[in-house]
Recover the amino acids of this structure.
């Protein structure tokens, strides 16, 4: 399902398990005269594909929040990726909750940064991370993967100390080729062999 906004705002929006919603334009959420909060929730098994667009506040005085639940998937092609501060990228809301049990996919056609976002309950951790951008993605923060780091297309660039990708014990890396690999520091926890 592709959603676009013709006018006005949406108060609350929920993506249930088995459903995928793709933004067809920037999408604003906001409150009403009797409700000054608005929520956009991606439940486990649900997928939100932002493409290059953003979730935005309809009005600055309304409290808005995105919740990316454990087991859900968030996809972005936005050049600025994802940010907890909501100042740029695919999520420009008052607050956001990004689960460390969720999956994150970067699939832009021009170069991207991952953006700085806080995950809970485990900070700087994701279930699965996919890089599918021939123009490349630059890691903006230290980030650990508990499941699979999938390098479909394009280079994931990392930086010593500030933005290192960690593949945790039991996690793996797939899709590595001459055109898709990690350029920079990577940490592997455990003793299983892997290619990066």
């Amino acid at each position: 399902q592709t959603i676009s906004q013709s006018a006005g705002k949406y108060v609350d929006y929920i993506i249930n398990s088995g459903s995928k919603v793709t933004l067809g334009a920037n999408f604003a959420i906001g409150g009403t005269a009797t409700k000054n909060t608005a929520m956009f929730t991606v439940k486990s098994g649900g997928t939100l594909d932002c493409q290059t667009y953003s979730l935005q506040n309809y009005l600055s005085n309304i409290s808005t929040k995105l919740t990316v639940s454990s087991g859900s998937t968030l996809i972005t092609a936005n050049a600025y990726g994802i940010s907890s501060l909501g100042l740029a990228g695919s999520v420009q809301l008052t607050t956001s909750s990004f689960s460390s049990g969720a999956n994150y996919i970067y699939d832009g056609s021009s170069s991207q940064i991952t953006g700085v976002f806080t995950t809970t309950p485990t900070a700087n951790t994701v279930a699965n991370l996919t890089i599918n951008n021939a123009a490349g993605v630059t890691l903006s923060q230290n980030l650990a993967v508990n499941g699979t780091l999938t390098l479909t297309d394009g280079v994931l660039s990392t930086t010593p100390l500030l933005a290192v990708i960690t593949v945790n014990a039991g996690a793996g890396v797939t899709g590595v080729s001459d055109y898709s690999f990690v350029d920079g520091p990577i940490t592997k926890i455990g003793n299983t062999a892997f290619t990066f």
DSSP finds no helices and 24 strands in the chain. The chain has a mean pLDDT of 91.
